[in-house]
Specification:
323 residues; mainly alpha; 16 helices; cell membrane; DUF318; UPF0718_permease; transmembrane
């Protein structure tokens, strides 16, 4: 529905040509801005209602397993079964922090969720076979677990913006108030609370959504797959590193990058190089980092990008070695 509306506005009403780079970039910006703001609003609304059923203590207990690192594994597995892109994972990240889930475990989810989802896996298995699909699945979980463990070990809780923790306090007050009310009144307050969360969070990040997707749209239209194939093709020992650097400024979900991966591999780009590009686009996109900046500080973003980027590079070289 959103794509149909974007096609109508950009191509039919405004007269842009979808075959040109300008037309492709304008369409990308219009479509993705509407899509991301819609997804953010809907997800924040429903996650806020869902959060109201679980006290911070219950959520924290679910993922903060007594055995070390089990919580990271559980969060990464949860990321696999949630089909969110890097931008739409941000509200869930906020919800985890608000609920008191440890920062490292929260990042395990944030890393894995955009990299791997069930729809992308079905496409990978069907297009590239079970071996590549399975290796990609395992790699995505490993990157999430390892990245979360490292970030958790660094003790960076003070690098989360203060207002996020303030929302946690408000959530606890809200939960106590709801417990004293009738079911009808309880649901009314839950819905009002969720609407308030949408207004609060979207109001804080919408400018960053516009800026981030605008940058992604320019690169999307003016940096075609052939450019990466030219500089990160077979025989270049730095191909994986270049693929990750190429991927970071772009924005797409895992499903959207699979056709690009297929095109790259058809042009002779090695499997590991192409898949590391896919991971970088989905997990480390510049638009997502710009949006994420509203909830975490630059130091933590830098550490996040560095840890995940190095992990993806390592997996890319490993894929090239074993495939």
């Amino acid at each position: 529905m959103i794509k149909w509306f974007a096609d109508l506005v950009i191509y039919d009403w405004l007269g842009f040509d979808g075959a040109t780079r300008l037309g492709e970039s304008v369409h990308f910006f219009f479509y993705d801005t509407i899509k991301i703001l819609f997804l953010l609003s809907v997800m924040i609304f429903f996650i806020s209602i869902l959060r109201s059923f679980f006290s911070p203590e219950k959520t924290k207990k679910l993922l903060s397993h007594r055995k070390k690192y089990v919580g990271n594994v559980l969060a990464s597995i949860l990321g696999v079964v949630t089909p969110f892109c890097s931008c739409s994972s941000v509200p869930i990240f906020i919800g985890f922090i608000e609920s008191g889930v440890p920062l490292g475990i929260t990042f395990s989810f944030l890393i894995t969720s955009p990299i791997v989802n069930e729809i992308a896996l079905v496409m990978l298995y069907s297009l590239f076979g079970w071996k590549i699909g399975t290796l990609y699945l395992i790699s995505g979980v490993v990157v999430g677990v390892v990245g979360g463990i490292i970030i958790g070990a660094l003790g960076l809780e003070d690098e989360v913006e203060e207002y996020v923790y303030q929302i946690q306090i408000n959530d606890e007050d809200q939960g106590e108030a709801l417990a004293q009310e009738s079911k009808k009144e309880m649901w009314r307050r839950k819905i009002e609370f969720a609407k308030g969360e949408v207004k609060e969070i979207v109001g804080r990040v919408w400018k960053y959504v516009f800026i981030g997707i605008g940058i992604g749209a320019l690169i999307h239209g003016y940096a075609p797959a052939s450019l990466l194939a030219k500089y990160a093709g077979e025989g270049n020992p730095f191909a994986v590193i270049l693929a990750v650097l190429f991927g970071i400024p772009l924005y797409s979900n895992a499903v959207g990058t699979i056709p690009i991966v297929q095109a790259l591999m058809s042009k002779g780009v090695a499997t590991g190089t192409a898949l590391s590009f896919m991971m970088a686009v989905t997990a480390l996109s510049l638009p997502a980092m710009i949006i994420l900046r509203k909830v975490i500080k630059p130091k933590l973003i830098t550490i996040f990008v560095t840890v995940v980027g190095l992990s993806i590079i390592g997996i890319g070289y490993l894929f090239n070695f074993v495939m």
